[in-house]
Amino acid sequence: MKNLVAVIRILVGALFIFSGFVKAVDPLGTSFKMHEYFEAFSSLGLEALWKSMSAWSTPIAVIMIVVEMVVGVTLLIGWKPRLTTWILFLMTLFFTLLTGFTYLSGYCPTVTFGILSLLAILLWIIAASRYYLPKGKIIFFSALGLTLLMLFYMKSGSSLLACNFTETKMKVTDCGCFGDFMKLKPWETFWKDIILDILIFILVIRADLIKPLFPTIGLKVTTAIATVFSLLFCFSNYAWDLPIIDFRPYKIGNNIKELRYPLKPEIREYVFVYKNLKTNEERNFKTDELDQIDDEWEFIDRRDVVVDPGIPAKINNLFIRNQEGVDITDQLLSNKAYSLMVVMYKLASANKKAITQKLIPLSQQCEKSKIDFYAVVGGDIDPEIFRHEMQTPFEFYTADETALKTIIRSNPGLVLLKDGIVLNKWHYRHLPSFDELKKEIK
Fold first, then answer.
1. Integer Cα distance of 315 and 176 in angstroms
2. pLDDT tens for each residue of 355-390
3. Out of 3.30.70.260, 3.10.180.10, 3.40.30.10, 2.60.40.420, which CATH number does the structure's domain 329-440 have?
4. Considering the entire predicted model, what is its pTM?
5. CA-to-CA distance for 365 and 130, rounded, in angstroms?
6. DSSP letters of 312-340?
7. Which of 94, 150, 221, 346 has the greatest number of C-beta atoms within 10 Å?
8. Cα torsion at 292, 298, 300, 306 (round to 10°)?
9. Residue 425 near residue 360 (C-beta atoms within 8 A)
């Protein structure tokens, strides 16, 4: 047991540090994902609560990331093992709820399933706190049995708990557990969290086997350093500058124009559904099988079936439109000269000081030098009203907010393009002067 706990301790601690780090590289990405969850939850009820939570999604994301990294460190160094393992256990249960909501919403779970889920979580918590007591082990096996039974009936499509799984019904398509570094399917993440729950449960009940690596003062100093570093690292990657590592398809050097096309096209074929008039059997016929049909079969429907999903485009939601609503994405990205694109995914919260003191003067100098300068904005408020209010001399185009958030984690942000290639990007706190820009344009 001692060796098992040691191995689990290293694996779980390293996983939490790694998971926290790749999210700390891009805290706004986690914030946007939390906002996505809150919007999905609001459709189930308590809309006012989830909207207020959405307003605090960035602070919530930063706190979650910092705690995730710090508890990973404290687990490895062995500081306050009981407190650490309990925090890990409760965090993992919380993550399981999120990923479970993502995955299991594809099964359209019933109220009965929701009640049983809360009961199972409560039993797991009680079992972890009382495992060494006689009834604790009974509660543990009850929690395990209830969880496995629910999952079994869920997979079997029990109408009491849920309907059959349909991927398009899922409320959130990606949990964001590893930020943009690694995209896991919702079911992969859910089962990963189930395994983590079991591993961390072992750590909770055998926290006495986790021994500290240093004297108490060393443990406190290490924990303090980890906390300060995590917090400052988060702020440096969104509040003060752009993410130090860009995992998104709009990173410097990428060709946006090329990434908007699939690497391998999807292949579909028609399937014709017929019903046998004698046996009521329904059968799918491919196009080349239609000559097998006789008078015993009655046509019912024609469907598209995906034969090969192909490899989809890495960028599939970027559509830039002018004031008339015409898609001008290809036109802008095919510009072989240098161009500057200001990105403002939310006009209402865009930093106005950066616009008036930096972007407007820069646009005026670019106009004199015949360098295209335009803004692509979200539709939270009327762009024309905002433009006249700010007295901006450059054109405003519109695009989907999600796509703009992906392009650059700054509001506003500035992107230097040439023939669809991203040459540089700037946070609004570090916008270049025209002289600095000329060094980028060769």
1. 17
2. 999 999 999 999 999 999 999 999 888 888 898 888
3. 3.40.30.10
4. 0.76
5. 70
6. --S--S---B-TT--B-HHHHHT--SEEE
7. 150
8. -10
9. no
